[in-house]
Amino acid sequence: MLKGLLSVLLVLVALSSTMGKPDKAAVKKEKRVPQTLSRGWGDQLIWAQTYEEALFWARSKNRPLMVIFHLEDCPHSQSLKKVFAEDQDIQKLADEEFVILNLVYETTDKHLSPDGQYVPRILFVDPSMTVRADITGRYANRLYAYEPSDIKLLLSNMQRAMKFLKTEL
Amino acid sequence: MLKGLLSVLLVLVALSSTMGKPDKAAVKKEKRVPQTLSRGWGDQLIWAQTYEEALFWARSKNRPLMVIFHLEDCPHSQSLKKVFAEDQDIQKLADEEFVILNLVYETTDKHLSPDGQYVPRILFVDPSMTVRADITGRYANRLYAYEPSDIKLLLSNMQRAMKFLKTEL
């Protein structure tokens, strides 16, 4: 209850400061919306923060890992994100069967960029920590790119990723 | 508007499902609060997601990086987090002068655990990417640990971290 009141107060403070003449100090005082790990790819999903964390979860839960590379100012990333977040089949499968990670910065692991560091790009990783370079989209020059119209192909690729590779581990 | 209605509906669904006899299916239907990058260490601060991202920002903004290792189920981490989030001097300095990152999983970089992988543990990194192993707390057996009562020492260490090392880069 107190928390609720505080939030309302803070919003009012933020509103009143934006209604005044905007200057640098006022902008700084505005209440920021806390950043989420989902970044809009599915607020109801549990996201890993880092690749190390995601690999740990994939191993311990024996689930495939889906890594989404994207950028906030890339229109292709934004349009893919929209259909990804709205597709109930994808969201359900991601929630129930995958470990998921979305990154706006590249990792140091070159296995996650088999044909370059473009965005949007989606890679699957086996719980045995093998990057599934065999699971690709439909573009020969950017094998791991997906357009919004490829969303069902992505769903089908998620189902493929659930059939684990037989490894020697 | 539609989004607002949907949220209300979802909350109602979540409420009604929690009021019934709890079972596994009902728990799954509850609306989750999206995870934040701050994890309670300062919702109004801009947090980096990964160490790679944090290093990129530190270099490009020429700011020192503060890395906080902690765990959600560690009482020492929780009590330090509380004073950290409530200390206005720390929050202001972190906001204005630092790149900040909080992690619940270790990175693969051994430089971030000079004397082990305990929590809570706070390391500073120079924009030249040198880990400031010289900036320590008051415990000889855990050089980078801080208790809640050490919060002003942490503030003073943040001020020290702002005086960059002279490196040959």
TrEMBL record, chains A, B:
Keywords: Endoplasmic reticulum, Secreted, Signal. It is found in: Endoplasmic reticulum; Secreted. The keyword Signal applies. It comes from the Eukaryota. SUPFAM superfamilies: Thioredoxin-like. One of its GO terms (cellular component) is endoplasmic reticulum. CDD domains: AGR. Its main location: endoplasmic reticulum. Residues 1-20 form the signal peptide. Belongs to the AGR family. This is Anterior gradient protein 2. It comes from Paramisgurnus dabryanus (Large-scale loach). The lineage of its organism: Eukaryota, Metazoa, Chordata, Craniata, Vertebrata.
